[in-house]
Write a structure and sequence with these properties.
UPF0126 membrane protein (chains A, B, C), 0% strand, homotrimer
């Protein structure tokens, strides 16, 4: 297993944790927790691969199936501890966001999408799982109203990935650079509470 | 750019307006508005292309990405004006409905679906984006309970498109005829408040 | 028409009934009832085929389109009678669950998925339609919180199907055995109120 795979599975693991924790909060049973964990972790990549018209990676890799189940088991038994370490989970979630947008953009470019569309698909990869998690849990996706910058760091990371690719800098160094940029922006956005604007004239609460 | 492309982008624009306006009403931030605008405008076509097993047109065309963003910007700055002109937007929405059902049916026929299935996919193209918009905005799709005739005009337009195709009348004239028929029926349905029935015995409000 | 097709259409019919009945309960109009009936009956198979990267069977078969519409008509006119016979519908629903998980797993194996992934896709086939039904009807999928064993019987049926396949026992006998096992488990789970656990420490109501 190489470094990229390890980072990838780490991203899947923390996304799955966030899904399973949402499951506990909504008082779902263990089946619901497992479904929510898996969809959060794998949903973005599945959407990406459906759009690229290839078989989803989640249905060809062993780790992609087992890691969300592992996260479910951990949250099932130790959810108070996981909840208490949510600040740490948010750091990993930011890492997952960075990695998923970079990897998703790269895969889209490999399959011949234009840079613009590759960026769009990279962002979809990064945020798609969280959107599915929230829809299944019966709430408006937090991405849409939360005002925390979440999609914007992914957008910038994807754009940098696509730019490096266009300049001939493919390879894991480019992927890592784009992922680190998105991660850093996301951490700053959380630290300094950068907020997305509401439409002009809509009163701020 | 030919007439069909122009009509197509017009349809995408008004569908995107309706998504962005819904975003303002739900107090979503600008990211949520852009997501809702894009999904409303592109969701039906993406579903159609996934089912046809081809790469979605939205990921190969520049305009399909930029037009929903343009609609988002307009609604972001001038949503009171857009809301005030909603009657006009509804006319354009009816035009988009007509065009999308005709174009979707035609594409499905081109890819070898039977007329019946092509009609089904044409209707999916026309109404799929609105369903995704409502699900993401956290409400039951208005198509399902609204009782306004919305799917039915699309169904008839798609059926006419498929019939003309079977009779050997392909080409933009057939597409336009089917689109105009669906548009006209939708306008009549709005004008005269034609309503879909509830199940027998369910009391009318 | 062979026995498998007949069982398949029966499964589609009862799943469609459950969708249409949900439509009446939510006071949807006839269009909403038809959409809900079709998505409940066909959604799982459509998801399966999208992931397998083949054209969904629902868009190539006549019966798959007509049977949900037939169920809609029946519920439209006679929903009090259908509601009264819901215990019988639940038996058929269990039969549909069993059949869909077995057939879905088999199709996934035929397309070269590993046994683990084929099981996952078999369960998706069996429960996907119900999840879509609930999301469209504006509620958290009952699968996620209901605590009734529904996914677990499908999981075991799929696992048996994949095991028999690995042992060289393909063919309708294997499919039927797996389907009967899942059906039986589901019936026992209903009869004896077997329940999925909540996360440790979450108080039971």
């Amino acid at each position: 297993m190489n470094v990229t795979s390890l980072l990838d599975l780490t991203g899947i693991f923390v996304f799955a944790l966030s899904g399973a924790v949402m499951g506990v909060r909504k008082r779902l049973d263990v089946v619901g927790m497992a479904v929510l964990a898996s969809m959060t972790a794998l949903g973005g990549g599945i959407l990406r691969d459906l759009i690229l018209n290839v078989r989803p990676a989640a249905f060809e890799s062993l780790g992609y199936v087992l890691v969300p189940l592992l996260a479910t088991v951990i949250v099932f038994f130790w959810h108070p501890q996981v909840e208490r370490s949510m600040p740490a989970v948010l750091v990993f979630d930011a890492a997952g966001l960075g990695l998923f947008c970079a990897v998703g953009t790269e895969k889209a470019l490999t399959f011949g999408l234009s840079p613009l569309h590759a960026v769009l698909l990279g962002v979809t990869t990064a945020v798609g799982g969280g959107i599915l998690r929230d829809v299944l849990a019966g709430q408006i996706p937090s991405l849409l109203y939360d005002r925390q910058l979440y999609a914007v760091p992914a957008l910038l990371g994807s754009a940098v990935m696509a730019s490096l690719w266009r300049l001939g800098h493919a390879g894991w160094q480019a992927t890592l650079a784009a992922a680190v940029l998105a991660f850093t922006l996301r951490m700053f956005a959380m630290r300094y509470s950068w907020r997305a604007p509401l439409a002009r004239g809509v009163p701020d609460d």
